[in-house]
UniProtKB/TrEMBL annotation:
This is Ubiquinol oxidase polypeptide II. It is a multi-pass membrane protein. Its main location: membrane. It is found in: Cell membrane. InterPro entries: CcO_II (IPR045187), CcO_II-like_C (IPR002429), COX_ARM (IPR010514), Cupredoxin (IPR008972), CuRO_UO_II (IPR034227), Cyt_c_oxidase_su2_TM_dom (IPR011759), Cyt_c_oxidase_su2_TM_sf (IPR036257), Cyt_o_ubiquinol_oxidase_su2 (IPR006333). Residues 22-119 form the Cytochrome oxidase subunit II transmembrane region profile domain. Residues 366-405 are annotated as: Disordered. Belongs to the cytochrome c oxidase subunit 2 family. It comes from Blastomonas fulva.
C-alpha cells in the first residue's frame, strides 16, 4: 500500500514552518538593549519603519483591491479606457509621501545631533540628566589582529577581550586600531563606530542594566575576524571596583615592549589582565610610535607645519614602508629603516593632535573648516612661530636608524 504524500503546494509551507523553532535562539538586543543610547537608536529604527509603513501598507492593500475589483470577469466595474488624470488622486499620491519624507528628515536631523557619538551624554536615562560634577569613565580601545585591548587610565589597568563597566555611569571610549580598519560594536550599549590606524574616534554611551553581553568587530579584517569577539560585563559600582582591584592585584605590566608582542597577529586569545600600563601608551599607539626611538606622527606634522627641517631633514624623504606596506607587529622590525624621533616632548604627546578636539576652541577666530586666516600659519603650541626664537624648542637633526649589516 502506497503511503499518502503531501501536495506539492503544501511542501514549501511545511519547510518554512519547520524553521520557526530555530528563531527561538534569536535575540532582540538591538530593539531591546541595556543602554539608553542604544535604546534611542532602536526607537529611531521603529519610528522610521512605522512612517514608511504608512505608505507601504495602503499601497499593497490597494494593489490587491484594484486587481480584484477591476478583473476582467467583473462586468459591473466602471470602465474608462480614456481616463488619464485626477487632481485629487495626484494630490494624494504626492502629498502623503512628501509628509513622510518631511517627518523622516526631522527625525533624522534631531537624532543625528542628539546621538552624535562624539557628543558627551546629557542624560543616562529618561528624566536622569548627567550632573556637572559627574566624570565619565574613560576607556581606551585598540583593535588588534585579532583581539581587543581595553585600557583604563583612571584605574591604571588594561584587559584583552574583556570590557567591564559600571552601571549608570557615563562612558567615554577613545578608539583606534593597530593595523587595519575595524569596527567597535556592542549592540546592547550603542551603535558601532570605526577603529582606524593612526586615527582616533570617540563613542559616548551608558549601561542602564547589569548583565553579561557581547561585543565584536563589525568590519571584516582578515582570517581571524570571525573570532574577534569580547565579553562585556555591566556591573554595579561596587562590583566594578572589586573587579578593578582584582586586575590590579593579579595582572602583569603592559609596557611598550609587552604591547609590541601583544600586537602580533593571533586568534582566539583568552581574557588577559594587566595591573599596570605605561603612561601615554594609547597616544603612542594612535601616533604610531610605540617602537623605541621612532618619531611620532604629531612630531612629523609639527615639522611639516614649519616647512621641514632644512638640511637636517634632507634625507628624510623616504616613505615609511614599515607603516605603509608591512603588517605592524609581525616581527622585531618590518622594514630596513624608519625616521627616528627627536626632541621628544612628553607634554606634546599628552596633548597631541589625536586629542585636539578635547581642547577649547575660540569660535570667534574660527574660519572655514578650522583653517588659519590667510597669510598666517596655525602651528602647534610647542612650535608657534609667533613666539620669539629664544622661546621656541630647539630641533635636533633627524637621524636614520638602520639595522646592523
Amino acid at each position: 500500500m502506497k503511503s499518502p504524500s503531501l501536495p506539492m503546494r503544501a511542501r514549501p509551507m511545511l519547510a518554512a514552518l519547520s524553521l520557526l523553532p530555530l528563531l527561538g535562539g534569536c535575540g532582540m538586543v538591538v530593539l531591546d538593549p541595556a543602554g539608553d543610547v542604544a535604546r534611542q537608536q532602536g526607537d529611531l529604527v521603529v519610528i522610521s519603519t512605522l512612517l514608511m509603513l504608512i505608505i507601504i501598507v495602503p499601497v499593497m492593500a490597494l494593489t490587491g483591491w484594484f486587481a480584484w475589483k477591476y478583473r476582467a470577469a467583473n462586468t459591473a466595474a466602471t470602465y474608462k479606457p480614456d481616463w488619464d488624470h485626477s487632481t485629487q488622486l495626484e494630490l494624494l499620491i504626492w502629498a502623503v509621501p512628501l509628509l513622510i519624507i518631511i517627518c523622516l528628515g526631522a527625525v533624522t536631523w534631531v537624532g543625528t545631533h542628539l546621538l552624535d557619538p562624539y557628543r558627551p551624554l546629557a542624560r543616562t536615562a529618561p528624566g536622569q540628566p548627567v550632573g556637572a560634577d559627574v566624570k565619565p569613565l574613560e576607556v581606551q580601545v585598540v583593535a588588534l589582529h585579532w583581539k581587543w585591548l581595553f585600557i583604563y587610565p583612571e584605574q591604571g589597568i588594561a584587559t584583552v577581550n574583556e570590557l567591564a563597566v559600571p552601571e549608570g555611569r557615563p562612558l567615554k571610549f577613545r578608539i583606534s586600531s593597530s593595523s587595519v580598519m575595524n569596527s567597535f560594536y556592542v549592540p546592547a550599549m550603542a551603535g558601532q563606530i570605526y577603529a582606524m590606524p593612526g586615527m582616533e574616534t570617540k563613542l559616548h554611551a551608558v549601561f542602564n542594566e547589569t548583565g553579561n553581553y557581547e561585543g565584536f568587530s563589525a568590519n571584516y579584517s582578515g582570517a581571524g575576524f570571525s573570532n574577534m569577539r569580547f565579553g562585556v560585563r555591566s556591573m554595579t559600582e561596587a562590583g566594578f571596583e572589586r573587579w578593578a582591584a582584582q586586575a590590579k592585584a593579579r595582572g602583569t605590566t603592559l609596557d611598550r615592549a609587552a604591547y609590541l608582542k601583544l600586537e602580533r597577529p593571533s586568534e582566539k586569545e583568552p581574557v588577559r589582565r594587566y595591573a599596570q600600563v605605561d603612561s601615554g601608551l594609547f597616544d603612542r599607539i594612535v601616533n604610531m610610535c610605540v617602537e623605541p626611538g621612532k618619531m611620532c606622527m604629531h612630531d612629523m606634522m609639527a615639522i611639516d607645519q614649519r616647512g621641514g627641517m632644512g638640511r637636517a631633514g634632507l634625507y628624510n624623504v623616504r616613505q615609511l614602508s614599515y607603516d605603509k606596506f608591512a603588517a605592524r607587529g609581525t616581527g622585531d622590525t618590518a622594514s630596513d629603516r624608519y625616521i627616528a624621533e627627536n626632541c621628544s616632548n612628553p607634554e606634546l604627546l599628552g596633548t597631541s593632535l589625536a586629542r585636539v578636539e578635547d581642547q577649547p576652541v575660540n569660535l570667534a577666530e574660527l574660519t572655514g573648516a578650522g583653517l588659519s586666516r590667510p597669510g598666517t600659519r596655525a602651528l602647534s603650541p610647542a612650535l608657534d612661530s609667533d613666539k620669539p626664537a629664544s622661546a621656541r624648542p630647539a630641533l635636533t637633526p633627524v637621524s636614520i636608524t638602520e639595522p646592523a649589516s
